[in-house]
Amino acid sequence: MKSILENRPALKEEVEKIAEVAGYLWTNGWAERNGGNITVNITDLVDDDIRQMPAITEPIAIGEKLPHLRGCYFFCKGTGKRMRDLARRPMDNGSIIRILDDCEHYEIIADNPVMPTSELPSHLLVHDKQVETGSGYKATLHTHPIELVAMSHHRPFLKKDVLTRLLWSMIPETKAFCPLGLGIVPYELPGSVKLAEGTLNALADYDVVLWEKHGVFAKGTDIMDAFDQVDVLSKSAKIYIDSRAMGYEPEGMSDEQMKEMTRAFHLPK
Ligand SMILES: [Zn+2]
Description:
This is Rhamnulose-1-phosphate aldolase. The protein has about 270 residues and is α+β, with helices and mostly antiparallel strands. It is built from ten helices and nine strands. The longest helix is centred in the C-terminal third of the chain and has 23 residues, at about 225-245. The radius of gyration is 19 Å and the shape is elongated. Zinc ion binds near residues 35, 214 and 215.
């Protein structure tokens, strides 16, 4: 069977980027079994032939009405699929969906009827907000970075911007490359409406949010951007934990050094 990616270099490149990131999630130990999700808005890469492509499933209810996603297209990781498999065979472990005109249903158009992640409604809720606000963000990522999840088990770290300040202070680049810091979403049942709402609220002020005792959710201009922000935060978390393992509380950059970074790199905070 012909793949939708054939003779579409821009779309192919985007899906290859998703596969590359899925491989990083697995090799980092952040994606055990079928853990984690990726959803990318590929509407800008869709041509007229794709718009005419017949669906390969019946319409499927989203469970939400998402008025800004009418006619949008997404690549979604498949439910129960593993990141390590997505890395090698993205179109067998994910699919491309079209949001229907009622904004309440979608259909799969390619390559195979791989049902999207059960977290699709919460990912689409975030995408709906990005389109509404014209943010330019196209990718959402959920994964389980070990050190950041470990830090989310310590109550004092969950106060607003305590972890942001700590992680920024471990290495200057973290502030430069994750300039909005790390938001906190209190524990809620995975897949619940409360978790989705808490995430949406926190993403108004941050690009990456930490789900207490679970993982992170990140938005980015593309999937690499979302991954990079989680990666730099995770690097800082490792430096903090290594310092503690060597028996001391790391000094961290001073307030003045942090302010200097803000000025030099024209950072928002
Ligand atoms: Zn998870």
